[in-house]
Amino acid sequence: MPRATRFLLFSLALAGCSEFDLINKPLGGDGEAPDIEVDPSSIEFGLLSSGETEVKDFTVRNIGAGTLNVSDIVVGTGLAFKVLGPDVTFDLEPGEELAVDVEFTPMGADENFGRVLVISDDPDTPEAPVDLLGHGAVPDLVIEPASFNFEDAFIPCGATKDLTLSNQGSEELVITEIDYTSGGELSIPLAAIRSQLPIRLGPGDSTTVTVTYAPLSAGSDTGVLEVTSNDPVGVETADQNGEGAYVDEESEQFTEPGQPSVDVVMLVDQSCSMDNNQNAVDQGIPPFIAELQNLSDWQMSLIVDDHGCARGGVMDQSTANIEQLISNNVFSGTTSGAYLTERLLQLTSVALSQTGPGQCNEGMLRPGALLHVLLLSDERERSGINWSAWVADFETYVSAPDYLKVSSVVDVNSTCGDGSGPGGYLEASNYTGGSVLNICNAGWGTQLTDIASDVLAGIRTYNLSQPADPGTLVVTVNGVATTDYTYNASTNSVTINDPPVGEGDVVEVSYGVLSTCP
Fold this sequence. Notes:
Blueprint: H1 3-15, E1 36-39, E2 42-49, E3 54-62, E4 68-77, E5 81-85, E6 90-92, E7 97-104, E8 110-120, E9 127-137, E10 141-144, E11 147-154, E12 159-167, E13 173-181, E14 186-187, H2 190-194, E15 199-201, E16 206-213, E17 219-229, E18 235-245, E19 248-255, E20 262-268, H3 278-292, E21 298-303, E22 311-316, H4 322-329, H5 344-352, E23 370-376, H6 387-395, E24 404-410, H7 425-432, E25 436-438, H8 448-456, E26 461-463, E27 474-477, E28 480-482, E29 485-488, E30 493-496, E31 506-513
Parallel strand pairs: 2-9, 11-18, 20-21, 20-23, 23-24, 24-25
Antiparallel strand pairs: 1-3, 3-7, 4-6, 4-8, 5-7, 8-9, 10-12, 12-16, 13-15, 13-17, 14-16, 17-18, 19-31, 21-22, 26-30, 27-28, 27-31, 29-30
């Protein structure tokens, strides 16, 4: 379609929008009325580049019999146009006219449409239009999509969206600045993008900016991308919205079974560097056993030999002189060529594997009992197998993973023994919720009661069935909320510190379920 024809259709379309119908012109008090005429009723400007301007005029004429009062001349539509005047408020007597200048500065590539309205007291045409068309040979930045809604995005995975920045103009586009604002959950790699500035795009070229929505909690966020360039508009924007949501809302109930039986398995490194710990053991074992006596159903086994069989058999509250028995045997172990004494996690596995009928550790483990493994060493675990594999092995000997705890007396800060630290032991203890004492402290034996108290604490740790957002946890004991609990992210479990949880008590844990990200 020829350009002139398109402009004519545009002018007719705009004219068709008028809310004013032809009516009989009312007369003023003296029987005379003004009648406005604008000539031409449409103006077409030439093809201009960035920074260029062109001025054309139209004439406002009074062809009526009364005085025409023009109260304003405004640009109704079209950012590329500006009314220069000389005046926008004036009176015209019958037969008078005034030329009005309009300036065109291209604000977009190709066709720039606009309209000027002459506002007057003409009774049938109070807003006389002049349709405008200009042509721009300029860079034209277009951001697509200009608006995007991520809708529901599951926490914490979120989603991404590529925004396309393209030059739809006829001259080179130079992007000089990019900025992004949001509530914090919507972002772009701003530093990396700015390191590439200025970005130059020829006509038809494009680049992309990736927006990442990473919701951390339920709720909405809005982000705005601002791009500054030599596009005559100056700054173009695009907005994004997102709503963070949990996969589900979960509520789980646990009924405390009461104080279960406890099977304690104590393993002691027999390396020479451990010799100076005899006194600490002698100091710590009596109060440790005394604390265990508060529990009605416990038993204990001491493993110090590479073969993994318990010294003194399975001991309990009926065993005579149990403190002396442990003291006499704790550092009397023998080692084979395997040197499992420096691999206490592996040695634990060897000991547990011999608890079947007719084996040397028969009776060490009882169905439904808690298993509490106590490890003493001043150097790292040297089996060469990751601690998590050993813990997984230990869990096969209990009725549920939360019935297992590993506690350690180890070189926490790598300051004694051979300086190799607590590797393997510390991680196993932390993962299972056990206690950790520093073997480098001379009086560590007196702190063994802390581990005994941990044994007496029973379970009080509840494994959740779904991945939980810790910020959403609500914990109640018998319907009363408590905030004195510990959440272990690695095991996805809640341990209640207070109030004490007794037999028959009902623990309820509610939380938002996190998505498992691909």
